[in-house]
Amino acid sequence: MEFRYLGRSGMQISAITYGNWLTHGSQVENDVATQCVRAALDHGITTFDTADVYANGKAEEVLGAALKGERRESLEIFTKVYWPVGPRGKNDQGLSRKHILEGIDASLRRLGTDYVDLYQAHRYDVYTPLEETMQAFADVVRAGKALYIGVSEWSAEQIRAAHGLAVSLSVSLVSSQPQYSMLHRIIEPEVVPTCEELGLGQIVWSPIAQGVLTGKYKPGEAPPPGSRATDESGGAQAIARFLNDETLTRVQALAPIAGDLGLTMAQLAVAWVLQNADVAAALVGASRPEQVAENVKAAGVRIPEDAMKAIDAALGDSVERDAGLVARSTPRRRPV
Q: Which regions span the lipid bilayer (predicted)?
């Protein structure tokens, strides 16, 4: 396993980080989820990312149970706050001081730990003053319940404003967690340069584009039975935008590039995001332990420049590059 510093912080994390967004507590049984976590540990992964909203808290519970008995100091556990959780009452959401301080305590109970290494704002809250949000995060850190703070799917402007407040509050804002893959590159024009300037590292999610970059979805064919595209509990909606014949045809052109490098298409996709020096880790999930074993082989791989150019040529204009989509991903109404 390769380890990288998270932004300018002194904390190192595994370049392949295990995430349990669409699996634990929903798509796979708890015992299989535990097997996946054990496989991650066996292959050198020490960093685990979750969120309170995943399966309405169940994902945190499953992860905490799977990690029970491990030396806490040898792990990096990340979670997030923002989306509605619990009974979805009027204050069970957003980035208010009330929800953040109550949210961290609930997450720690579910995870079975005294602290998380990174506590992240899962989206930007346009209805709560940023000063209130950042003061609450600072208090979480000072209480010893989180070591660092981060954001997810924030625009460059939002990140810059939060960083300024973090500096004034003497807390470490060290990371951004955006979607990033060969097919989704909207962070490159603005978010990545801003984070590089301010010292934030990228922990990128969906590096395999919800499974599309594995090549298993073929143009003109129905999705394979049991695949994410057939999961009506959330997976199908997440992957739908990639499932058009033009994109799927272009993705198939990546197969010979991966083959020439001795990689599977999934490994090529993960290695591609890790090629970006500002990316500290690629988040990968799994519904089977074998998937973990495959993904970790991307750690430490360097893709030659000619192969990088061939990837760009193969995908062409199917790549989403609109930087404006980052800001537009911020919910404009309170989550309910």
A: none
